[in-house]
């Protein structure tokens, strides 16, 4: 009898241990798969949704200045493009934990787009780079068609706020998650002249990786001088000079100054943007519907 009971208990334990783990849930995000969504596309889109990080709203000083050491946002080694320092208040948003990988890009877009046109097993987790803006728009539209999920590029103010660490940001960090670049950024000094898989270095306090270095990141704003006045959820100008796109974060061939959280750059949307990748912000369905009416 004891042997029978021991056998039954052992079977129960083994059955419990071999039970499949539940799939991770996506709180407040409903995916509506299109019939033509492939298994690879579903996997990549689901990962984008699972990797979203909630950034609570708040107010911060955007930009940096090199004139008054006792004033907010001082760094003696900056340029005028990052001035004037100004207050920005943002609503909460969800942003990707990682830069979009080559696998995610090509699963959605297919070969022949981006810098290299394809990926291999060895390069699947490298960040995508070298897209044109029209390709980015197609990428976002295809995600929506395949899953019903809507994404967009971050605004420049959202990007900097998230890179600094959001509402509970530590003060004084020049890079996203650290004062020194080597801990958090693949740059000219430690990259070996090549891209690295996403998420290999230290994250910032929000859990966001590679916001400094690896690939620079495209924002939705037209690149233009900063305003001096306080702003609320700014979207950037609709037009300025050559309508270049704002780019943030620096890349694997940048010096460390270009990888700082307040450094600004730009790229032409009409040509492949070398060294530039992307990170996405999720648009809740209610917001998407309100903007498309």
Structure summarized in a few sentences:
The protein has helices at 2-18, 39-50, 102-109, 133-147, 156-164, 285-292, and strands at residues 52-55, 58-62, 86-90, 93-96, 150-152, 216-222, 231-232, 245-248, 264-267, 276-277, 281-283. With 293 residues, it is an alpha+beta fold.
Description:
This protein is α+β, with helices and mostly antiparallel strands and 293 residues long. It has one domain: paralog of FGE (formylglycine-generating enzyme), CATH 3.90.1580.10. Helix content is 24%, strand content 15%. It is built from six helices and eleven strands. A four-stranded antiparallel beta sheet has the order 1-4-11-5. The longest helix is centred in the N-terminal third of the chain and has 17 residues. It is globular and about 50 Å long. The protein starts with a helix and ends with a helix.
Topology overview:
Blueprint: H1 2-18, H2 39-50, E1 52-55, E2 58-62, E3 86-90, E4 93-96, H3 102-109, H4 133-147, E5 150-152, H5 156-164, E6 216-222, E7 231-232, E8 245-248, E9 264-267, E10 276-277, E11 281-283, H6 285-292
Parallel strand pairs: 3-7, 6-10
Antiparallel strand pairs: 1-4, 2-3, 4-11, 5-11, 6-8, 8-9
Helix pairs in contact: 2-3
- Integer-rounded radius of gyration: 22 Å
Put simply, the count of helices is 6
Detail the poorly predicted runs.
1-25
Helix content percent band = 10-25%
CATH topology: paralog of FGE (formylglycine-generating enzyme)
- The dominant shape is globular
Range of strand content: 5-15%
Query: How many structural units, i.e. domains?
Result: 1
- The CATH architecture designation is Alpha-Beta Complex
Number of E strands: 11
At the first level of CATH, the class is Alpha Beta
Q: Which whole number gives the mean pLDDT?
A: 85
Largest sheet: 4 strands, antiparallel
Under CATH, the homologous superfamily reads paralog of FGE (formylglycine-generating enzyme)
Structural class: alpha+beta
**Helix-strand sequence:** HHEEEEHHEHEEEEEEH
| Termini gap | 71 Å
- Strand order, largest beta sheet: 1-4-11-5
């Amino acid at each position: 009898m004891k042997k029978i009971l021991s056998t039954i208990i052992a079977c129960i334990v083994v059955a419990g241990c071999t039970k499949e783990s539940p799939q991770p849930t996506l709180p407040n995000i409903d995916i509506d798969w299109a019939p033509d969504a492939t298994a690879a596309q579903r996997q990549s889109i689901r990962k984008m949704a699972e990797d979203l990080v909630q950034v609570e709203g708040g107010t911060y000083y955007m930009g940096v200045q090199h004139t008054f050491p006792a004033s907010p946002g001082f760094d003696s080694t900056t340029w005028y493009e990052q001035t004037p320092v100004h207050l920005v208040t943002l609503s909460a948003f969800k942003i990707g934990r990682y830069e979009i990988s080559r696998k995610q890009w090509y699963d959605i877009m297919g070969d022949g787009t981006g810098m290299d046109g394809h990926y291999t097993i060895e390069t699947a987790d490298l960040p995508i780079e070298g897209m044109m803006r029209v390709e980015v728009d197609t990428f976002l539209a295809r995600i929506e068609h395949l899953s019903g999920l809507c994404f967009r590029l971050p605004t420049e103010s959202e990007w900097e706020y998230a890179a600094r660490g959001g509402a509970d940001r530590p003060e004084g960090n020049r890079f996203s998650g650290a004062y020194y670049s080597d801990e958090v950024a693949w740059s000219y000094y430690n990259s070996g002249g090549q891209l690295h898989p996403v998420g290999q270095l230290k994250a910032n306090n929000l859990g966001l990786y590679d916001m400094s270095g690896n690939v620079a990141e495209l924002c939705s704003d037209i690149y233009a001088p900063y305003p001096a006045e306080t702003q609320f959820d700014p979207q950037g100008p609709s037009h300025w000079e050559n309508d270049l796109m704002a780019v943030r974060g620096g890349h694997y061939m940048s010096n460390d100054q270009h990888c700082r959280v307040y450094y600004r750059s730009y790229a032409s949307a009409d040509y492949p943007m070398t060294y530039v990748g992307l990170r996405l912000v999720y648009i809740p369905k209610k917001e998407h519907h309100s903007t498309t009416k």
